[in-house]
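Slide 14.
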Amino acid sequence: MSAAQTSFPFENEIINALNTQPDQAEASVWAVLQRALLPIHACPRVVTTLEVAAQTTTSGKSYFVLRNTAQNTYLKLEPREYELVGLMDGTRTVRQLVVEYFLRTGALAVPRVTGLVQLLATNSFLAEPPRDVYADLREKMRASGVAERATRLARGFVFSEFTISNIDAALARLYHTVGWLFFTRPALWLGIALSALGPLIYAEEFARGRYPLAQFGDSYLAAFALFFAFQFVTLIIHELGHAMAVKRAGRVVPRGGFLMYYGFPAGFVDTTDIWMAPRRARLITSFAGPYTGLVLGGVCAVGAFFLPQGLAGALCFTWGLVLLVNTVFNFNPLLELDGYYLLVDWLEKPLLRARALGFVRGAMWEKIRARARFSREEIFFALFGISSLGYSVFALLLALQFWQLRLGSLAGEALTGRNILAQSAALLLGTLLFIPLALALYVWGRKLFEYAAARVTALNARAEKIVRREALEALSAISLWQNLPEARLLEIARAMRVQNVAAGTVVVQQGEHGDTFYVIARGAFDVYVDGAFVERLAPGDYFGEIALLTHAPRNATVMAHEPSRVFTLDAQTFNALLAHDLQTKRKLEMAMQYHAEIAALPLFQELSPSELDLVLTKLQPQSVDAGAVIMRQGEAGDRFYIIHKGRIEISKDGQRVATRGAGEAIGEIALLYNIPRTATARALEPTELLTLTANDFLDLLVRYLGRADALQNLSAQRLRGYNSLPASLGD
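Slide 15: predicted structure.
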């Protein structure tokens, strides 16, 4: 290797290993390579260019927003996660961080720690992020077919972004020169007056009929061209409103630019940095864009009213109309624009639209049929969901009528007239409209074709076999079902039903009596307890297994975070299948009860069902009699113990120092260091333990990091997942 080349961190270790004795070299090299390839041996170190903002929700819950000032990346973390970030100084391995978290909180939250490391790495918060070599290889080897390339090309036309970087300095100068004036009290009162006056003047102008809606100077083509020109200027002013609000809060606008959204121009400024400011500043930023258009629309309305009928008045009328229409659309909370994000941030209801539509599609009708009482939140979801659906239909009909009027008039003028320029312009505009529309139809058509093909396939016998095989594989991966006879497991898999779940659909409602068991085949589900987010379940996870044993009330609400697929098994079918096999049924019931007992221990409360299954494969049960010594001070330690049932006395130098009970752990230092025991542990009564060796703990970390792909999907959603405020988009 030349001096110009840089070596990787383990190069010297491998060279030293190769220089050892021949019979030891092979083992040494592979050991070093394993350490180099597995991220659990990495010592994550957070970047020095880190800015932190402590925030609080209206309900008093704390959270932290992190910003990498060098990369302009952001991340929202819970207090416990932020505490872990403070430990990532490059001196602790991922394995040590897991143990440190356990020592501080008493929870063996392996997925929380490993997932946080992956999350920080994905969002450029680590100085030297761990690299998943095998994931890189899979990405390089992934084939790119003709259909995939065509779809990417279509998406490029349908949605393209043209970014202008390093605009913050120019925006800061603009704010300090003139922008600050618009946030003064006189400007505020003047803006409110113009905002109220504008719509009144337009109502009067419509009654007077001085200015036609679809023409400018007796020309439909001129009106059509002005519409796009004014729309372009309007979106720039709209985005400047957002940007000035961000600068008023003292935050950064790193970039902006233009979008082609289904062939139509739009603009954006990156307002993500406003998440570092208080909630009031975030609300003002969302409000500032459409409010700017509303005020300027009022100015144009005044001009159109007082100017004599002519070119200047017609220009004011046309531009003011564009401004007011844009403002109405952007303030409308039923569309996912500024008004919607204002409402979401104000109410602090993440995924409001998806949750409301999911409720209207499913749970609302079940409640109506059962004549059940609606909670206040359910009433809100029902009203919002129904209003959103109704407005979507209304907006579609309105848009069709608008474009029919515009394009019909334009085509008539071009075809009947003799103006070559008008005909050429009409042809050009028609082409510009047709290309993105055709590409959008291609993308939608492909999705529709894939959906129809999947539905047709599901009707034939081959699809039935596939579904059964998927259900069998899903069941077989769950430790609760692995000990069942193969024939019985196949019978249960055949009885399971597949169900596609739309995003925002509540599958399980806390407090309701359940009778169905769910296994996640695709997608993700969020778990809420008393309205607070607890965890996200991924493919391979399951929930509701206790419903097969008892109709006890559900202890959590489970909602689809994205379009998902589950396999379901109801209690009636479960009991019918095992009615004549009481031994198998009893065995399964005991396994479920044991799983529920372990899951209830404080140590494991942060693990999802499949993650707990993974831990249980390594935990070994051990029973000890009263008075038995479990570990002795001074002995070498290579495992730790979790108390399932019973009590243990801890003594040091012959003196009792503490007692431990169910759910607590002893000997945890053995997970990190092979050092002598610092205390003696003796059972005070017959005690049941779960033991884990240091080597098995290391293997657990490796297997958790093997599931990191699912955890990385959170990276783009964590900041917007609870209080959605995206980079501003002008329409």
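Speaker note: Confidence is low (pLDDT under 50) at residues 1-15, 21-27, 705-731.
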